[in-house]
Amino acid sequence: MEVYLPIILLFVLFLLNVPIAFSLIASSMVYFLFLNTSIPVSLVMQRFISSASSFPLLAIPFFIMVGSIMNYAGISRSLLAFADSIIGHKVGGLAHVNVLLSTLMGGISGSANADAAMQSKILAPEMTKRGYDLPFTAAVTAASSSISPVIPPGINLIIFALLANVSVHSMFIAGYVPAFLMASSLIFTIAIISKKRGYKPSRSEPAKAKERFHYFSKAIPALLIPFGIILGMRFGLFTPTEAGAIAVLLCAIIGGLIYRELKIVHIPLILKETIQGTSSVMFIIIGAMVFGYYMTLEQIPQNVASALIQLTDNKLMLLLLINVLLLVVGMFIEGGAAMIILTPLLLPAVLNLGVNPVHFGVIVIVNIMIGGVTPPFGSMMFTVCSILKVRMVDFVREVTPLLIALLTVLMILTYSESLVMFLPNLL
Description:
Elements: H1 5-15, H2 20-35, H3 41-51, H4 59-73, H5 75-87, H6 93-109, H7 112-122, H8 124-129, H9 134-145, H10 155-164, H11 168-174, H12 176-197, H13 209-234, H14 240-258, H15 267-297, H16 300-311, H17 315-332, H18 335-352, H19 357-371, H20 379-388, H21 392-414, H22 417-420, H23 422-426
Helix pairs in contact: 1-2, 2-15, 3-15, 4-14, 4-15, 5-6, 5-13, 6-7, 6-9, 6-12, 7-9, 7-20, 9-20, 9-21, 10-18, 10-19, 12-21, 13-14, 15-18, 16-18, 17-18, 17-19, 18-19, 19-21
């Protein structure tokens, strides 16, 4: 039983609201200092250092910087105007624009919390001004932000590829179909709710072709960034890590020379936000790697895999059990941390039953994004509720139908490997 003490301690620390990185490190050190003293502490410290020495991890600060540059470069406003011209004339127009903007921004920001915070400040005030209930506005903003990390170059796609030792390029390509289904399900659900409540469109009539073309032409530079990254990797022009640097350069050129909103005075702010974001992510990754070292030594992933296989050797049933596990864990633990902890545990079991690791990665990432919207500890839920000053009880009431829509998509993705793998296999 003492072998599992660090895991128990980890969950206790989570429930006590100890920061994720400190929880992982503290739990690991309890094992190496008291339970397994045969390993020198110097070797454990070396593991801390080597965990951060992976070349592919350089992609993380680059893509975090991309999201920061985007906020200062006018890219988000350009995409907002384009989204409004496309779908703003529908009933509940601004709520639809909220979802479409998250989808368009996904390939650029790659962060659910960044997307949720940005739309809470830019779009949510306009929605409430147009008569949308504040809790409904918060629910749509949080639910739509779950799409962003599923579209490349989402940070979680990179992290899962590193954890599962699969191609980052394949994970990137596999994200498009799930993101499209998530966006479609939310738009369909919002349309039903908006019609019942009488929410008005954001514009009285559809935008004319000339106006749509005008906004589209302004948004082209921003929309080309994710496609340029994917095509560059596809044709071997650069690696995923180098793609991050290319994306930073493209965003800087677009913001400075095309939109002309990115100024030299923004550079210190961008660097500060990048360092803060990278530090928090890397600290969690380092803690998780050392925690994974403890689990490997005690063969816990193999034990969990064999336990799951003994429970059922049916692939479909196993995926259902894993979905339930991920959803429950995602309600209590921040999504990135849950993925880092659970992927090494669950991957051997699904691989043993012939599940494609890229397909499994999509299931895990969509799952933890839904967890980020779900009480009691969903990170996007907290972000939106704190910015918009919405009570959690009201948020839960409004977000329930949107969660049902996302869970329906999750089930489709879980049992349709051919659908998820269509684009990766095609390319």
